[in-house]
């Protein structure tokens, strides 16, 4: 059992009744605006990870605050069994407009795990309603993260998250995430993309196609893989394989969706229409807990005809969250924030790439738009990882925080081993603010190299 961390030196606050993980207590945040957060002493920190890739339109946005205030004055909570709710109706229509044709049925929830959970349950109810009750297995990838509820955890490919809960959850089959950048097999990227996709076909056959319900993946990886983008050939091949075996394709867009990558959905970069989409994070953009499952009428109709979807959460689709979500979408459109994410993302990625010659422990820079990651290696030729005991992914976060920049990190990659950090500022970031981020990162990496002797 982990022992509780002692309060940081100089911290006179009484012990907190909150508990999360065994960590040092952080400073209290007192205010946030744009890409900045101020702590109680007045120190300003750049929110270079938009919280946990959530605050896509920045902090303190007046349009969203005003819309929330107006909705709060009208009605904060109206239950869907008693009344229709106009903001939820309008937000559902606005989301359907932004999704690929055919994906036009929206089911609201309050977070990413709930969105994934909803996809798994709708898929299963659809299979039962259409006489395919033998299908229940959901194949996913490792590493991956799909949420912390037991269903979402069963498809999450990371033992550290799931192991403590066995046998409460049903462990689902996993295939490797498409870490093509690590392969030294002499194949070109197109061939590697097809090879990784074919692992899905192999797994479906191994499991028995009549038992496989769905395949879930993040089109652009989040924290688990460090913004992993597969070769272009991967995406259409995965869609083809799912179609061939009658397996539903679920895109977990909790982190990659809502515009952060420069398109509304990550899968839009490859023109893929999945059967189900899980959205959250940037949908409420940190103003309200909000998520959604988006599906086609083809999936929803048989479930409704068979008696309805046996699922739901009390707070789902409440008018306050929906009004905030609508204002977030308006803000994205009004300032072309997806265009800005594409442009500023390209600039930031180029600046991160340019660090490589000075910091040879940077093995890879990847991602799309403002979902970007930097991976550390001990040798960029072999892409061998840094020794685990250096704890580089945690140290880089702490060193950056001391210098006034928040970044986000994990130690996972193919085979669940490797250090990376994500730089994902809000979609409002300017070129001048990217200069600020890069100046701090540069100094952070110098300190890391000194400290770990890299
Ligand atoms: N799916 C992905 C890809 C995520 O990144 C996350 C959270 O980080 C989740 C699901 C779970 O979302 P939440 O923490 O809102 O439940």
From TrEMBL:
UniProt xrefs under Pfam families: Aminotran_3
SUPFAM superfamilies found in the cross-reference section: PLP-dependent transferases
Gene Ontology MF annotations: pyridoxal phosphate binding; transaminase activity
Domain of life per record: Bacteria
Cofactor(s) demanded: pyridoxal 5'-phosphate
Keywords, in A-Z order: Aminotransferase, Pyridoxal phosphate, Transferase
InterPro entries: Aminotrans_3, Aminotrans_3_PPA_site, PyrdxlP-dep_Trfase, PyrdxlP-dep_Trfase_major, PyrdxlP-dep_Trfase_small
Family in the record: Belongs to the class-III pyridoxal-phosphate-dependent aminotransferase family.
Name of this chain's protein: Aminotransferase class-III
Lineage: Bacteria, Pseudomonadati, Pseudomonadota, Alphaproteobacteria, Geminicoccales
